[in-house]
Design a protein that fits this description.
alpha+beta; Dna Ligase, domain 1; D-amino Acid Aminotransferase, Chain A, domain 1; eight-stranded antiparallel β-sheet; five-stranded parallel β-sheet; 26% strand; globular; binds adenosine-5'-diphosphate
Length: 450
């Protein structure tokens, strides 16, 4: 096992990794930008190193500074968390060439999966169906029109290098295709410095279902079952559940598909295969997230596996201590993301000082957060303040538990998404499991007329 690990991230996930290190008897070295100087996660690390100014480019996205911190602290491995550099193949490669173990997949696998068009080619090799669409990038208008007609409108134009819900556009007819493509290219160039786009059939009201996988360096690959992340706003997840409440045969097939994909691309460590599921429970691969995800706790709750500790053990060369048959899916878990956002202003991020914070407790309740009373949420980074997770024997009991826990949770001083979650957990459609990826914007918060 490693003696010391650098946590190349901040906030909630930095704390999550520090906690895993403590339980493994590994020293955790935290990094921080000047904006995070007073962040509570630093107090829980064995050491904290300032890596630069508030701007991410000067700190959490700055590879030379992170490598310098790793050298100064004399660590053996680097955990990238999620976001920031976690899916940057160059960072993974540089870590390893500087003799630091990167706690994540091989850089070749990150590179291949980072381009969604390439990921679809690998899915085909693994005999996993993708959403019908173009074979790779679309280079001309004529080609786009031909493909769109063959798969049928509406189509979705997606950025090959896309992520975080950016660079996607629905196009409903041939007439608007050229202008939509141009707009999508501009958006992709601005967001990802890569104007490459491709086409997919736009699946009507799908569910977003994903499968957690773990793969060691000894050829063992297992899935840790499925999560439903259909509740989204602007393609950003709000609520995640495990399991995805699908028939067991479909769940098994999804798990097997994810394992085949991971094996085909030579994946190791933790990762997620994302799928869209239509009304008939057909599933279509959309992409791989080559990192630990925000919503990993719901899979931990139903399987009893500590995914972050497994990531560290895998990186240290240990074989998985269980087989697929040992990974059971028990009960139902739900996570809600508590973001500091202002509902009166289009849910834009709202920074500020938390004046009071009272967290829920009791059976089956977990609170993963770096925040506490007196902490000021800096305006520089994403708006996640904490994750409230519940686990119960069944979905109805988990919903009742989440309602109870949301009522206990008090955050004062900043605006948060708590009222939105309370509305979701009271809504009949959600209780009945009658939701899809368009539900929040279509039913719960339709745009105001005019
Ligand atoms: P990103 O990497 O930007 O998160 P994804 O490919 O994972 O993009 O898609 C994000 C979300 O966009 C999905 O969860 C789903 O809600 C929606 N989406 C993506 N592809 C399609 C599609 N072909 N049809 C309908 N919705 C889609």
């Amino acid at each position: 096992m490693f003696q010391r690990i650098l946590v190349a991230n901040r906030g909630e996930i930095a704390l999550r990794v520090i906690r895993a290190c403590k339980e493994l008897g590994v020293e955790a070295v935290a990094v921080y930008s000047q904006a995070d100087r007073d962040a509570p996660y630093l107090e829980l690390a064995d050491r904290a190193i300032c890596i630069g100014k508030a701007a991410s480019a000067d700190s959490y996205l700055n590879i030379p500074r992170l490598i310098a911190a790793a050298e100064v602290a004399d660590v053996q491995a680097i955990h990238p968390g999620y976001g920031f550099l976690s899916e940057n193949p160059q960072f993974a490669e540089i870590c390893r060439s500087c003799n630091f173990e990167f706690i994540g997949p091989p850089h070749e696998a990150i590179r291949k999966m980072g381009l969604k068009t390439e990921a679809k080619v690998i899915a085909a090799q693994a005999k996993v169906a993708s959403v019908p669409g173009s074979d790779g990038a679309v280079n001309s208008e004529a080609e786009a029109i031909r493909i769109a007609k063959s798969i049928g409108f509406p189509v979705l134009i997606k950025a090959a290098a896309g992520g975080g819900g950016k660079g996607m556009r629905v196009c409903r007819d041939e007439a608007s295709l050229p202008s939509s493509i141009q707009a999508a290219r501009n958006e992709a160039e601005a967001a990802f410095k890569n104007p490459s786009i491709y086409l997919e059939k736009y699946i009507d009201r799908p569910r977003h279902v994903e499968v957690q996988v773990l793969a060691d360096h000894h050829g063992n690959v297992v899935h840790c079952w499925d999560r439903d992340c259909s509740l989204q706003r602007r393609h950003q997840k709000l609520v995640e559940e495990a399991s995805a409440s699908l028939p067991i045969e479909v769940r098994r097939k999804l798990g097997e598909a994810a394992v085949r994909l991971a094996k085909t691309v030579g994946y190791t460590n933790a990762g997620t295969c994302e799928f869209l599921v239509d009304a008939e429970d057909n599933f279509y691969f959309i992409e791989v997230n080559a990192r630990i995800q925000v919503e990993h706790p719901v899979s931990e709750e139903i399987t009893g596996i500590d995914l972050v500790k497994q990531q560290i053990r895998i990186a240290a060369g240990e074989p998985l201590p269980f087989t697929q048959d040992d990974v059971k899916s028990e009960g139902h878990a739900i996570e809600v993301r508590i973001n500091s956002e202002d509902p009166e202003h289009g849910f834009r991020p709202s920074a500020g000082r938390i004046t009071d914070l009272r967290v829920p407790g009791g059976p089956g309740v977990r609170w993963d957060s770096h925040a506490r009373a007196g902490y000021s949420v800096p305006p520089n980074y994403d708006s996640l303040v904490g994750k409230l997770i519940v686990h119960a024997p069944s979905r109805p009991e988990a919903i009742a538990r989440m309602r109870r826990a949301l009522d206990e949770l008090v955050i004062e001083g900043i605006k948060t998404t708590i009222p939105l979650h309370k509305a979701i957990f009271r809504h009949k459609d959600f209780i009945d499991g009658n939701v899809d990826t368009t539900w929040v914007e279509r039913v719960l918060m339709p745009p105001k007329a005019g």
